[in-house]
Amino acid sequence: MTKKTLILLGFILLKFILQYSLISSNYDLQRDEYLHLDQGQHLAWGFQSVPPLTSWVSYLIHFLGNTVFWVKFFPALFGALTIYIVWKAIEELNGNLFALILGSTCVLFSALLRLNTLYQPNSFDVLSWTAFYFIVIKYFKTENTKWLFIGAFVFAFGFLNKYNIVFLLIGFLLPVLLTEQRKIVAKKEFYFSVLLGLLIILPNLIWQFENSFPVILHLKKLSNTQLVNVNRLDFLKSQIFFFVGSLFVIISALYALVFYKPYKKYKTFFWTIIFTLIVFIYFKAKDYYAIGLYPIYIAFGSVFLAEKIKQGWKRYLQPVFIAIPILFFIPMYNIFFPNKSPEYIINHRQTYQKLGLLRWEDGKDHELPQDYADMLGWKELALKVDSIYSKIPSKEKTLILCDNYGQAGAINYYTLQKVKAVSFNADYIDWFDLTIKYENLIRIKEPNDTDAELKETSPFFETSTIAGSITNKYSREFGTTIFAFIGSKIDINKRIKDEIDEKKNDR
Fold first, then answer.
1. What's the pLDDT score for residue 1?
2. Which of 108, 143, 294, 352 could make an SS bond with 357 (beta carbons 3.0 to 4.6 A apart)?
3. Residue pair 131/89 in contact by the 8 Å Cβ criterion
4. Alpha-carbon Rg for the chain in angstroms
């Protein structure tokens, strides 16, 4: 085993160690993670909010035991593979050992550590962007058309993971047409590769068509409820913080792509980052959507800097350059990761607030970062529902109906009973089992007027009680109430079917 290989394996091992150490035991899984895990039990070619690839990974997680270890393993794996591809890109650009170490250090000690803590499509999204750009480097260097087909394959799987990769395509095509690489459009292989990509994503496109394009509805809701609160200036500020310890490397890459002669054939990448950021800003995208842009520029910058400081007194800058991302990470360790208790964060509120970490998607500041508040109260909810369910007569005829996907997914993940909670929210609306003749209802309601729920639903059941609530005051679900309605006087199944039809017609 060569020295280079040992160093690369060291980076990958360190990546996994860090990922598993950055989440405090104070926290449960995050709201979205439960939904993605349940998608693995309902495989399809698409879902309301995401394409199918995450569900395939979730199916594998279930096969492996569905433990938290495996839930956290895959985003860490995708982050480790991102480091590996940057390493290979540096080798392709003829970078030396110092360039390899610098590039890997910059990618390791970056916002990817935060992104890779959660089981969401975002980790594979960054990997897809990085892999696609690496393949472009291979094609620009060799002009071997096989890389066009490999690029189409990578893009297609990136698309089947998260539609965000369309921004890559928009931001990349115009720079290609503006540079010498425009000759690619004259090659018949280019069009065959486009056809290959379309064939791979076709099942998802058919699914979207057959389901009235739920992605459009999802984007409209996202725009009205979340993106409307996105500040374009804040978006740009975040881009600096994501790779703040590597900023000098990325800036060096942009300089080199214009003025460094060995990079002449890669000049397209200079315009790519500019046009892609413009597209993101125009559409008021969330700041983390752009993270996948940067790893490949770290590869370019690392090789350029390594070449410029390899001789004379400048070689003494090598350890300094490697130390910079690490030194920036040290203070970030105490602030940007869920490794501190809610009490600690509240006691240091000003620090978090100054950095904008308490600002939620509603545009307001709260006690905890939104992701952290979304990682609390779930086990408590599931255990209380379990306790209530175990005491109900004819429990097998009990419907557990939740207000949102987080509640349903958390109950399904942590429950000790054989229950399947559902909701009219997100993909759960398609997962009701109406072959069961329901007689009882456990209703999980978001914090609101509990008297109104009792007044509205009690007349349809023989007994009605408020059976519990989430008491963790730091949870986003604090105050969520559990109602138990026993002995139905109506046809619950018909009510549910009518509600499903109404919700789907409103899409």
1. 75
2. 352
3. no
4. 25
Give me the amino acid identity at 171: G
Instruction: Report the percentage of the chain scoring pLDDT > 70.
Output: 97
> Measured between alpha carbons, how far is 52 from 36 in angstroms, rounded to an integer?
10
β 398-402/440-445 pair status: parallel
Helix axes 405-414, 31-39, angle to 10 degrees: 70
pLDDT range class, residue 224, cuts 50, 70, 90:
low
What does the alpha-carbon distance between residue 343 and residue 340 come to, in Å, rounded to a whole number? 8
Q: Supply 412's token pair.
A: 């399904």
Q: Around 234, how many Cα atoms within 13 Å sit in the side-chain half-sphere?
A: 17
Tokens of 348: 């240091």
The first and second tokens of residue 454, run together, are: 């009792």
User: Which letter does DSSP use for residue 285 in this model?
Assistant: -
Report the C-alpha gap between 402 and 400 in whole angstroms. 7
The amino acid sitting at 132 is: F
Q: How far apart are CA 116 and CA 78, in angstroms?
A: 8
Which tokens in the block code for residue 477?
Answer: 């679900």
Distance, CA of 47 to CA of 214 (rounded, Å) = 8
| Strand pairing category for 422-423 and 440-445 | unpaired
Please give the backbone phi and psi of residue 467, each rounded to the nearest 5 degrees, phi first. Answer: -95, -10
Give the pLDDT of residue 317: 87
Measured in whole angstroms, how far is the alpha carbon of residue 507 from the centre of its chain? 24
Secondary structure element (H or E) that encloses residue 399, with its range: strand 398-402
Is residue 162 within 8 A of residue 51, CB to CB? The reply is yes
127 class by beta-carbon count within 10 Å (0-12 exposed, 13-18 middle, 19+ buried): buried
CA pair distance 113, 79, nearest whole angstrom: 8
The pair of structure tokens assigned to 433 is: 């089992």
DSSP reduced 3-state for 121: coil
What is the spatial distance between Cα 484 and Cα 444, in angstroms, rounded to a whole number?
Answer: 9
* C-alpha to C-alpha distance for 78 and 82, rounded to whole angstroms: 6
User: What are the CA-CA distances from residue 321 to residues 5, 483, 490 (Å)?
Assistant: 22, 58, 71
Burial (CB < 10 A; 0-12, 13-18, 19+), residue 110, is buried
User: CA torsion sign, 145 to 150 to 153 to 154?
Assistant: negative
Distance CA(84)–CA(432), nearest Å, equals 42
Query: pLDDT band at residue 217, thresholds of 50, 70 and 90?
Result: confident
Statement: the pTM of the whole predicted model exceeds 0.85 = yes
